[in-house]
Every structure is written in structure tokens, then in C-alpha cells.
Design brief:
Layout lengths: L1 H29 L2 H8 L4 H26 L17 H28 L8 H33 L5 H30 L2
Helix pairs in contact: 1-5, 1-6, 3-4, 3-6, 4-5, 5-6
Protein name: cytochrome-c oxidase
Keywords: Cell membrane, Membrane, Translocase, Transmembrane, Transmembrane helix
Enzyme class: translocase
């Protein structure tokens, strides 16, 4: 039931982000093309490409953690360098680090845009950009909190079992959802002309 509930909840989140995309396209259709082009020229594409790659790769590390959870393997077996022996804790810790790096990259991009005068209050682009990417960033932080919860419960659990496996699954559903939303935002904001 937890997995079904998570899927239903993510469906409502999908509607929320559909609204964000509607806001984006509405503002884009009525904004001055010159203003929009000037603002998009300030976007740091190398940083965003690296950041996006990190987030996409974090979905893979998250899924490797789920596979370890399905084996009921909380911790690594053998050396830390033996990635094949990693358990949920190692994979989810790596995923958490990658997600935190993504958030740091997003904050860096915001700082650069603010430095260039692109604010939420002074342009249509700024309003839409900060709203859409900001709400996504909040969702990423929510995912990071979920990873901490799953990691904490895996350390506390005397025996890693079905409950911990379900927690890993639903956290992965959320993380993959956040990843897919970012890929769509990335395409729309950074590539769609």
C-alpha cells in the first residue's frame, strides 16, 4: 500500500509541475523575445550540463541501492573499493552526496544570475526561472531528507528486512520522479528556443 500511495502522491506532484510548465510557456509566449534572449544568454551551460549529468547518474546509484535493498543487504561486504559488494547504505550515501552537489550547483547558478541582475522581481524570465527551478530544488532537498531517513532507519534496524526495502523503493520512486522532472526542465529552459 505504501508503494501505491507514493505513486498516487507523485501523480499529484506531476500535476503541480504541469502547472509550472504552463506558467513557463505562458510567460514565454507573452514576453519580449529580446528580454528572454538576453536572460537566457546569461545561463551557465557548462555548469548546468555537469549538474544535470550528476543528477541523472544519481538515479543509477539510487537504483543500485534499491537492488541491494532487494537482497536485504544494508552494508557493504568487503572493501569500500569493491563496488560490487556495496549495500544500500553505500549506494544511498553516494546518491545523497550527488544530490547535494546538484543543489550546490543550482545555488551557484542562482548567485551568478543575481550578480547579473536577473531577479525574480524584475523580469518575466527571472520569475519563471526561479519558480520552476526553485520548486524543483525544494523537491530535491525533500529527496535528500528522505535518503537521510532511509539511511538512518537502515542503521537502526537490527535486521534489514521488508520494511526497509519498501522505504528504499518509495524513496527511489520519488528520486526518479525528481530526476525526470529536471530532464524536462533542462530541455525546456536551456535548449528550447
Amino acid at each position: 500500500m505504501t508503494q501505491v500511495g507514493t505513486i498516487v502522491w507523485l501523480s499529484s506532484e506531476l500535476m503541480f509541475f504541469a502547472g509550472m510548465f504552463a506558467i513557463y510557456f505562458t510567460h514565454r509566449s507573452v514576453a519580449s523575445p529580446e528580454e528572454w534572449a538576453a536572460a537566457t544568454d546569461l545561463l551557465n551551460m557548462p555548469l548546468v550540463v555537469i549538474n544535470t549529468t550528476i543528477l541523472i547518474l544519481s538515479s543509477f546509484t539510487c537504483q543500485f541501492g534499491v537492488i541491494a535493498a532487494q537482497r536485504h543487504q544494508a552494508r557493504r561486504t568487503g572493501s569500500l573499493l569493491n563496488v560490487r559488494g556495496w549495500g544500500l547504505q553505500e549506494w544511498f550515501t553516494l546518491t545523497f552526496i550527488m544530490g547535494a552537489v546538484f543543489v550546490g550547483g543550482q545555488v551557484t547558478e542562482y548567485a551568478e544570475l543575481v550578480e547579473h541582475g536577473v531577479l525574480i522581481s524584475n523580469s518575466s524570465f527571472g520569475t519563471v526561472f526561479y519558480l520552476t527551478t526553485g520548486f524543483h530544488g525544494i523537491h530535491v532537498v525533500g529527496g535528500l531528507i528522505a535518503f537521510l531517513f532511509v539511511l538512518g532507519s537502515s542503521f537502526v534496524a537490527g535486521r534489514f528486512g521488508h520494511r526497509e526495502e519498501v522505504r528504499a523503493h518509495v524513496t527511489s520512486y520519488y528520486w526518479h520522479f525528481v530526476d525526470v522532472i529536471w530532464v524536462a526542465l533542462f530541455f525546456v529552459i536551456y535548449f528550447l528556443k
